[in-house]
Amino acid sequence: MLQPRNALLAGMLGIGLAAAGEWTGLLWGFLGALCAGLIPAGYIEWERGRGTWGDRHVVDRTKRAPIFFVILGSIGAGSVVMVLGTAPAGILVAMLALWVMTIGLLAVNTVWKISVDSAVASAVVSLLAVVHSPWWLAAYTLTAAVCWSRVALGYHTVAQTVAGAGLGAATTVAYAFGG
């Protein structure tokens, strides 16, 4: 339920709404969710169906690079559409912040396995706290649940989830500099 595509769908809709202040923001938010979460999730499922990976978790970090490149390309393409469509600055900056976070995930992943799920959960919560209300920080309990589940399932260590959550929170810094 809290996998990245779902977190990004809910989060980007909320960020889009905050950026535009009206229903059109939901459309921009959906485009953001499509490019940052839904298209990459579709790619993972497509490759999984082809037998490239055993499941959607892609536990072998050496096989993750193509996913990061799909995410970067998809976010980049979505950002171009947003620029051409004169999207509100807030949603575009959130997309670019997620793009920067993905570069960080890719860089770390070349030498060490980091939790993407934890990073996305943390980024969504921190961005919602910035654009809506600090009360959104209470949703870090959901980020903690994501981190716990990644460790409990044996996909990550505590350090890998903490690093992912930290990188996700740092996405807000990229957002602040862009806004």
From TrEMBL:
The chain crosses the membrane at residues 30-46, 67-85, 91-112, 119-138, 158-177. Signal peptide: none annotated. The keyword Metal-binding does not apply. It comes from the Bacteria. Keywords: Membrane, Transmembrane, Transmembrane helix. This is Phosphatase PAP2 family protein. The lineage of its organism: Bacteria, Bacillati, Actinomycetota, Actinomycetes, Kitasatosporales.
